[in-house]
Amino acid sequence: MTLFESLLETYKPTSDEATGPIRITLIGPRNYLLTERGKRQLSGTRIEVALRDAIEPGQLTDIIRSVCRKVEFPIIVEDLGKITTIEGEKISDFTYELPDVIHEDSKFIIRCFPLEQPPLWGELYVFAHVDKNGERWDQWSWSRYSYPNQHPQASTPRFVSDLYCFHGIAVPGGYVDYPIAPMATRIDYRGKSQDIDLSRQRFVSREWHVGGRGRTFPEVSSRWEEILTEHLRTSPLALAMDGWKYKQRLVSDFQFQSYWEDVPGTIRMHMDGQYTLHSLKTVVSFPVIRVIMRWPWEGPLLEESKVLEPDPQTLANSTGIILTHSDLVCLSHVHRQAVFSNRVISGMCRTPDNHLFIDWKLVDGKVEVLLNIDRGSRPIEGVPLANDLTVGFSIHQTTDSIYKHCVLNITNPLGAWIFGIKKRCSVGDCFVDSRMFKTLVSLLETPLAFGGSEMKKIESYLKRWREIPNLSAESYPPDISLSRDMFVPRPPQSEKRRA
């Protein structure tokens, strides 16, 4: 629908400025406004829009309905002979109760929490599931991706999307027609804005979109924090022995990072022979955190229930601040990233009883120990290992939401050579450029992450590298044959092997 010309004539007899009727004409979206004295005699506003192209029946009605979301008065639209009355949305348009056809005495519900903090008015909505154990707010993903496939009569529960309005009119870019989280903000800004233009785009960029979901408005974020605090205070799931796991699932869905930093009892650690609960702010300040893993832990998508707990005696005999692998996989990506983003591995040991001890030390920066810092994902860290036959392997997730953290053994000839190449590349080596190094790292990622998978690719690449003539001796990769058992953690070499 292309705008050709629009005309607006308005008159307010009671105006203090006594300007009389005003007529505004706009020809084309990029032309200047022409303002002149109008001829209107009655109080009110009349708008005419001339279109360059014809429109389909109902198209105008749909546009007005999509924009006038929170207008407080009815709007009567005559669209090519069809008259429609459009009214602002109501809470009842979104709230409902829907039976869960899989679990007995269970249902899905939409909770509504009013927001009345001038200049903001509206509602905040939460998608919830209720069963015999109470109400929970962590079933968003399950209800959308698993529930519909578990019963012929099960369908994805309907939810509400975000909406931001300026004096009842939806802000361009401030709404979507599909939900993106179990929380939704639908608010109307009724205050003054000195620099808003006719498109309201400047208002969007300044007030709404920075930070997402209107979180730049303190009234909105503080109301969400009140809602979450009350839920955590009363929820049986949050108050249970393993309530910290429920809180971690909420962290993923209700992403208010500054709020969750101070919430107590969100991370479980093992200290002084017993389990204790801490806030994220406390955990990120620990100088050293030891992660204890128990073999096997391989697999890119290992389920939480299949992660092996450390042997009780091994855990009891361990000192320091410990995070078990089974507890670590329960952390949200947001908290796991916060815990490990400023840490490097200060020590690693594989024991004969199939346990791996990893000490993570707090540092100011970790660029030097990471092989692929510029990629921002799939981290590979250089670590000296006791068994120099091991090239490297994957451990657990740290800063990436999908891929596990990998270690490359710098006491292994191949690992030492690769880190040497990285150093030479960084200082401008005449032979090794950034393209070659990135290719080398990309070929190394899959074998490290998946127990030697596709190692033949990097082996072939290194073979051709050795065939390049006239390189300095340190530029040639070591002539070693790779095997899959070089990409799994092994205990230190035996005395017989060393001899």
Describe the structure.
The chain is an alpha+beta fold and 499 residues long. It folds into 3 domains: 3-86, no CATH class; 91-234, no CATH class; 245-487, no CATH class. It is 26% helix and 26% strand. It is built from 15 helices and 22 strands. The protein has helices spanning 59-67, 140-145, 201-208, 218-234, 236-239, 243-253, 257-262, 280-283, 312-316, 325-328, 333-340, 413-426, 434-449, 455-466, 495-498, and strands spanning 3-11, 22-26, 33-37, 44-51, 75-79, 82-86, 97-99, 107-117, 120-131, 134-136, 163-166, 169-175, 183-189, 267-271, 274-278, 288-294, 322-324, 343-350, 355-362, 380-383, 392-394, 406-409. The strands form 6 sheets. Strands 7, 8, 9, 10, 11, 12 and 13 form a 7-stranded mixed sheet that branches. α13 (434-449) packs antiparallel against α14 (455-466). The longest helix has 17 residues, at 218-234. The N and C termini lie far apart (83 Å). 27% of the residues are buried.
Task: List strands and helices in order, with pairings.
Layout: E1 3-11, E2 22-26, E3 33-37, E4 44-51, H1 59-67, E5 75-79, E6 82-86, E7 97-99, E8 107-117, E9 120-131, E10 134-136, H2 140-145, E11 163-166, E12 169-175, E13 183-189, H3 201-208, H4 218-234, H5 236-239, H6 243-253, H7 257-262, E14 267-271, E15 274-278, H8 280-283, E16 288-294, H9 312-316, E17 322-324, H10 325-328, H11 333-340, E18 343-350, E19 355-362, E20 380-383, E21 392-394, E22 406-409, H12 413-426, H13 434-449, H14 455-466, H15 495-498
Helix pairs in contact: 13-14
